Amino acid sequence: MYPFVYQALSQRVVFGSGTTGQVVDELGRMELTRALVLTTPQQEEIGRQMVTTLGARAAGLFAGAAMHTPIEVTDEALKQIEAVGADCVVSIGGGSTTGLGKAIALRTDLPQIVIPTSYAGSEATPILGETKNGAKTTQRSMKVLPEVIVYDVDLTMSLPAKMTVTSGLNAIAHSVEGLYTQDRNPIISTIAQQGIAALARALPVIHQRPDDAEARSDALYGAWACGTVLGAVGMALHHKICHVLGGSFELPHAETHTVILPHATAYNERAVARELGPVADIFQSESAASGLWSFARRLDAPMTLAELGMKQPDLDRAVEVMMSNPYWNPQPLAEEELRGLLDDAFFGRAPGTSL
Ligand code: NAD
């Protein structure tokens, strides 16, 4: 018997093709009349189209969302919220744009409608990471959980194949850790397996044919499932390593998850081989770690920390930061083994080589 506590999160999810057209109805359902649309500068054009679609219910566009949710950007957006009298935000984009919407909700309690265009999964979580003076802090608060998610497969067709692979592996990482986390439960483990399986089916197809609508739909469904896992249960070593490498060494988010996942999985598989069994099965491999590694290689994903810009002399300091505040992990954290893990990831050796 594995006793558990499960806390369901309350969100409305609309999934389909052409669903951005339904955002007006969603605003009407919540009696919202002045939406500020949020995007990154790179996706400003999609934001403009949304403003047009929303017509009288649009209060304007803020196209300044940036990676790691810097407080200065949030302050700037808050000024616009006040100036235009917005009563909600409509966030269109990846995790960076969703993060800005969450930061606004934290400070104003304004409702959020999120239209995700990557597979990061932030839209399904009550988690917000922000940066102030270069330092990143992460918090969990129901205040930041978006009220509505509108998944529109059409908007993901433009996600470049390379980003699709890394973003998809970022999503898979949530589910892999969700399978063995200490607060795991049967519902979330089922969702985790579904999410990994959907992305395992879809990513190789998208890698070959980025405009395959069926595979894009599968991938977006998988991303939702994996985001749901991240929102519902705690994470462990893999997410900790990526948080440190992103926060303290400015490595890119999805790519770092991609490189680290097989290595962190090998580290933990010694303690939770049974829980990771479904991952090995999905990738038809003898272990979850080797399955994930071969899958990433097959998709031409980045395989080394070196190619992401990590400097070898910084690896010691990275381990120091990882060990500086203790956290739960199924396999005890041993400084030397972690250093070996980072070496394997730095050079792109097979996972578990140094263990
Ligand atoms: P991102 O949001 O920074 O997107 C990267 C770039 O791709 C941006 O320029 C974006 O505009 C562009 N882009 C996104 N979708 C596109 C599309 N369909 N077509 C063309 N371009 C597109 O990257 P991300 O990986 O989605 O998110 C990473 C951020 O999200 C990190 O800051 C991370 O910490 C955060 N995150 C938070 C959570 C959470 O639960 N709080 C979960 C996952 C990620």
UniProtKB/TrEMBL annotation:
It is an enzyme of class 1 (oxidoreductase). It comes from the Bacteria. The keyword Oxidoreductase applies. Its EC number is 1.3.1.32. Residues 164-345 form the Fe-containing alcohol dehydrogenase-like C-terminal domain. Signal peptide: none annotated. InterPro entries: ADH_Fe/GldA, ADH_Fe_C, Alcohol_dehydrogenase_Fe, MAR. GO terms for molecular function: maleylacetate reductase activity. Keywords: NAD, Oxidoreductase. Residues 11-152 form the Alcohol dehydrogenase iron-type/glycerol dehydrogenase GldA domain. The keyword NAD applies. Belongs to the iron-containing alcohol dehydrogenase family. This is Maleylacetate reductase. It comes from Pelagibacterium nitratireducens. The lineage of its organism: Bacteria, Pseudomonadati, Pseudomonadota, Alphaproteobacteria, Hyphomicrobiales.
